[in-house]
């Protein structure tokens, strides 16, 4: 029986036929792995996701975590799922073997995580945060910090979080106020409050490792004065034993429209609830150098952005598969030309508009999955590169694609969830079917790790222009290679390639025009429109790549690939034309709007 979480066949196509991830084993970093091992990993993750994560997805949504003033309680199945994942040694699956990890390619680990995101994104959130936390400390922490905190996270004894936002600052990290006062013993005492911190209080693990952004008094203003600290829920002894409670307290739980199974918290640091009152403050340990916290945290944020994008893809994907299954089995109505009411009803999948909705979902989720895995492949190239040129080329591409990999699935795989509800008809709007929860869960991804506005400013205001445009030039070269290959194939592929090339060259021209205006406010006024157009052209490129691999193959799977590509080029890519018109005209409508006119 086929899974309705993800398509194993599609994953195999993307991983092995397109990205040829098995070729990574030629790199020294990945030599101990094999294609058979990669397949076994997918088997294992599908089984664990189906057996331990999916069954309590609805239960965790209905029975949200509760806080009695002392202890947070989650449904017991969350702990069982955590333990199953940890027992399979999956927390450190892409981390260095020297740290106790399996050193798997990141492409495989993110494909593996997709199963869990599709099954239960709330429970998976605890794991994703822990893995990203461990990666950051492993890269920037001291050897003692790695031994004390990373090793227990990899084994599943400890979990991890990221504590950035504050009530008065929101996404504007330059305005955070949490302070860290240095002590004579090399530690710091933290005072302040953090908001919207996922996974920051529970009883799933022995300890919770918070990565906290804070200011050391006397440091420079803005982001240049922010440092990063490890602040554990419980202090850890030199022998690795968990000791007394640190002065980190839970002020309350936030209750969201989706992803309700993972705790979302308000944390207070140094309010004197724990530890002796004669020496207040939550004990923290500086990571790396003073005032370099934002630089370090961006490693975790960028990893989380790729994970959020994959989470959005996975939720869109499982909604698509469930609506497809429903459409195949739901009889209703007849073909438009059949007037005889005594003839049998047909399955709704036979209706053209239902086909349209299913085809749109397929184009969104399979295009999004391709982008997520492609970006993970770029991470692997950087990790396993045998030359600086190869590493730098991958870094240029990943830098410019990361805002797209986060934002595009958060917008368009959510649209897939919306269409999945509609395919279900009235049933789609009820809690008896999964698709309404998938929509609510996915809606949060538009704000996780930065809104579209933040991603668009990062793309247009930073990534496009930094290094004298080297990122954009690298992507232009890479897309041009695909276009050249497709044009050489001739026929339909050449037509699609020319369409993509025209759209991309127009985008590059418009990009230059935006900055040629000399008015940065005008250039950035419609950055979200730019982000949307950029994303759609990139996904068209993903579909051209898939068409190239599918061109001469036979069978329904490949026919479906080609048809989804045709759909995207016919229905979706043309949407960028009026967007580029608006950008090229340097439209000032939103910029010139005055607050009093609302």
Quaternary form: single chain
How large is the count of helical segments?
A: 19
User: Structural class given helices, strands, pairing?
Assistant: alpha+beta
What is the strand tally?
12
N-end to C-end Cα span:
55 Å
What does the overall shape look like? Answer: globular
As a percent range, the share of strand residues is 5-15%
Helical coverage, percent range: 55-70%
Question: In short, what is this structure?
Answer:
Its cofactor is FAD. This protein is 56% helix and 11% strand. With 598 residues, the protein is of the alpha+beta class.
What does this structure look like?
Helix 16 (527-550) runs antiparallel to helix 18 (576-584). This protein has 19 helices and twelve strands. It starts with 7 loop residues before the first helix and ends in a 6-residue tail after the last helix. With 598 residues, the chain is of the alpha+beta class. It is globular. Strands 3, 4, 5, 6, 7, 10, 11 and 12 form an eight-stranded mixed beta sheet that branches. 56% of the residues lie in helices and 11% in strands. It has a domain at 451-598. One of its GO terms (molecular function) is flavin adenine dinucleotide binding. This is Acyl-CoA dehydrogenase. Keywords: FAD, Flavoprotein, Oxidoreductase. Pfam families: Acyl-CoA_dh_1 (PF00441), Acyl-CoA_dh_C (PF12806), Acyl-CoA_dh_M (PF02770), Acyl-CoA_dh_N (PF02771). Residues 76-156 form the Acyl-CoA dehydrogenase/oxidase N-terminal domain.
